[in-house]
TrEMBL record:
Pfam families: SNO. This is Pyridoxal 5'-phosphate synthase subunit PdxT. Keywords: Glutamine amidotransferase, Hydrolase, Lyase, Pyridoxal phosphate. The lineage of its organism: Bacteria, Bacillati, Bacillota, Bacilli, Bacillales. The keyword Lyase applies. SUPFAM superfamilies: Class I glutamine amidotransferase-like (SSF52317). Pathway: Cofactor biosynthesis; pyridoxal 5'-phosphate biosynthesis. InterPro entries: Class_I_gatase-like, PdxT/SNO, PdxT/SNO_CS. It comes from Bacillus salipaludis.
Length: 196
């Protein structure tokens, strides 16, 4: 059974666990370096990116997560998780994990009160996929190896670069699990490659 870790420092952790378990995988709440052992994929959920960075530093998780990335472990960042993955954040001198070749702007769809839900057509995943935007970032610029999977109002809101999947919105807050299914397929394919 595939083991998918969810960074469980804050944010919508329970909702991710529910989707992962419904799709037949084991969900591991990651709160320490020990929890990263033997996972096949890692979800970086929404929350508040600055707070999450402080907690990553406090628990010594930043470098171990980068080391997993170096080993090719797939990672899926939603909302604040996308900000953690990005190589560049508008208005900031240094990134957090700095793994995905994208430039991200924080809170680019407005504040909490400006939250909204739309349906998106997502390349390679499907049509009419509900997307919940809460203080969402968006991808301003993407490297040449980044595949753009979805846009909303001409802004990139879902993209993939190899083992990294970055998402502006919260797929876990809906009943539609197609995006998580797509990530789990990434993990499954990667696990097969690593085992050969």
């Amino acid at each position: 059974m595939l083991k998918i870790g969810i960074l469980a420092l804050q944010g919508a952790v329970r909702e991710h666990i529910r989707q992962i378990e419904e799709l037949g995988c084991e969900a591991i709440s990651v709160k320490s370096v020990e929890d990263l052992k033997d996972i096949n994929g890692l979800v970086l959920p929404g929350g508040e990116s600055t707070t999450m960075r402080k907690l990553l530093d406090r628990y010594g998780l930043l470098e171990p997560i980068r080391a997993l990335a170096d080993k090719g472990i797939p990672m899926f960042g939603t909302c604040a998780g996308l900000i953690l993955l990005a190589k560049e954040i508008v208005g900031y001198d240094t990134p957090h994990l700095g793994l995905m070749e994208v430039v991200v702007e924080r809170n680019s769809f407005g504040r909490q009160v400006d939250s909204f839900e739309v349906e998106l057509s997502i390349h390679g995943i499907g049509e009419d996929i509900p997307a919940v935007f809460i203080r969402a970032p968006h991808i301003v610029d993407a490297g040449e190896n980044v595949e753009i999977l979805a846009k909303h109002e001409e802004r990139i809101v879902l993209a993939r670069e190899g083992q990294f999947l970055g998402c502006s919105f919260h797929p876990e807050l809906t009943e539609d699990s197609r995006i998580m299914k797509y990530f789990i397929q990434m993990v499954r394919e990667n696990t097969t490659v690593l085992s050969h």
